[in-house]
Design goal:
Oligomer: single chain
Number of domains: 1
Strand content: under 5%
Number of strands: 0
Length: 458
């Protein structure tokens, strides 16, 4: 705690640097969540069943999204560290490996989605009406995997070298494209056919194509920091592959298992009933909206920690870790306040039944408590500790609490004891509380700071 007090009192430049990195990321996250919220509101106007279907279909797509986040966050640890070392060659090799894996995983998800969309929906629910609409949404989303994956991973490594402006501007434009396309194709405006949930998927795809063209176009043809070009996709990376696997693959595995755990949570929710699914869709977007600053500061934590350690300033990185911990707690309190403030108007903006609104209010109350702990541990696990290269331990910690606590307690509360919605959701998210406590212990130990080798080191 003394380190935190010292840093707050003396190092104003640190906070300015953090803000310059975090705020553009947070702004882009806000836009992304805004797109999701507009999708949810627009589809919700069509019907509660359609809303539930799109929510569950996107739960599966989010597995891929989380895997891409894992790939790119792992790569960004290396890119930020090599950027601090001024080692452009290894930055390019890290990006090359990341993009190859992104394309491979996108192809696997696209094939599975195209071949078995109904099978995917049956994982989450037994209600045939929801499955039918979800099947339609997934079929229209097949091509989205490639666009989403490549633009997302590229965005995160560009942020690692201070290039957040282009992705931010692109996301702002993509937001308006998405909303406009949704309005046209969901409701059949301007002479277009009325497509419902298929229109929502098409609108998202159009926006993703735009993002891919601009963000990846910038990386491949304009950026002069990483200086990655299309031909570099085929460069030799064998001498860095071992270090990439050591740092990045645990992040991918961790986020992958976490995605499966979150999907298991969605399966529990799906089996409680369609009203609970619809209420969760509303509250999940609200939680994301309230947590955009946390996302920005989490990625800033990974970037700044990586660059500080790359410059050899280990003690300073430890001090920065305590500062980020305090910031996380304050952001959690802010997020909780925002949720309590906006929950009523948000729920009323959807076309929901009275019982679904009642469930949504209970979930909002649970989220307002959980988000305090979630913000604190997110800035540590997705930020500082990951930036320090502590990815193997994080792989274990991220998932032990989910699989050993959240899922068993959530199943017990929802499917066995049939507790009120507040307690079902609280127990499904109890891992966030446990991880926050663990993060403080790990940070204080100092064991999270790991050495990263360059491609020339043995």
């Amino acid at each position: 705690m003394l380190r935190l007090n010292k840093l707050i009192a003396s190092d104003k430049k640190f906070y300015k640097t953090v803000a310059l990195v975090a705020l553009p990321i947070a702004a882009q996250s806000l836009i992304t969540v805004g797109v999701n919220m507009m999708d949810t509101i627009m589809v919700g106007q069509v019907g509660e069943t359609e809303l539930s279907a799109v929510s569950l279909a996107n739960t599966f797509i989010n597995i891929y999204h989380i895997l891409c986040m894992g790939l790119s966050m792992g790569a960004s640890v290396l890119v930020a560290r090599f950027y601090g070392m001024k080692n452009q060659t290894d930055m390019k090799k890290s990006v090359a490996i990341m993009l190859r894996l992104t394309i491979l995983i996108a192809a696997l998800f696209a094939v599975f989605t195209a071949v078995a969309p109904s099978t995917i929906m049956h994982i989450y629910t037994k209600e045939e009406a929801i499955i039918g609409f979800g099947d339609t949404y997934l079929r229209w989303s097949v091509a989205t995997y490639f666009m989403l994956g490549l633009s997302l991973t590229t965005t995160i490594v560009l942020r690692a070298v201070g290039k957040a402006k282009i992705p931010l501007i692109t996301s702002i434009v993509a937001f308006f494209i998405n909303v406009g396309a949704n309005w046209i194709f969901i409701f059949g405006k301007l002479g277009a056919p009325k497509m419902g949930v298929a229109g929502a998927a098409l609108g998202t795809l159009i926006a993703r194509v735009f993002e891919f063209a601009v963000i990846c176009g910038y990386l491949f043809f304009k950026d002069d920091t990483i200086h990655f070009r299309i031909k570099d996709l085929f460069m030799k990376t064998g001498d860095l592959l071992g270090e990439y696997i050591r740092i990045s693959i645990p992040v991918l595995i961790s986020d992958g298992i976490l995605a499966l755990g979150n999907n298991s949570v969605a399966m529990v929710i799906g089996r409680i009933g369609g009203e609970f699914v619809a209420a969760n869709a509303v509250t999940a977007v609200t939680q994301q909206m309230s947590s955009v600053l946390t996302q920005g500061f989490s990625q800033a934590g990974a970037i700044i920690t990586g660059q500080t350690l790359g410059e050899g300033r280990k003690e300073e990185a430890q001090d920065q870790g305590f500062a980020f911990l305090g910031v996380g707690f304050l952001l959690g309190l802010l997020s909780a306040g925002i949720i309590m403030l906006i929950s009523g108007p948000v729920i009323r903006s959807y076309n929901l039944s009275e019982n679904t609104q009642h469930i949504a209010r209970q979930l909002m109350n649970a989220i307002s408590i959980i988000v305090i702990f979630q913000a604190t541990n997110s800035i540590m696990t997705k930020g500082v500790l990951r930036g320090g290269g502590d990815t193997k331990v994080l792989m274990l910690a991220d998932n032990i609490f989910l699989w050993a606590a959240s899922l068993p307690l959530g199943i017990l509360a929802g499917l066995v004891l049939h507790l009120p919605a507040f307690w079902i959701y609280f127990f499904l998210k109890i891992d966030q509380v446990l991880k926050a406590v663990w993060c403080v212990i790990r940070l204080r130990s100092g064991k999270w700071i790991k050495k990263i080798k360059t491609s020339g080191e043995k």
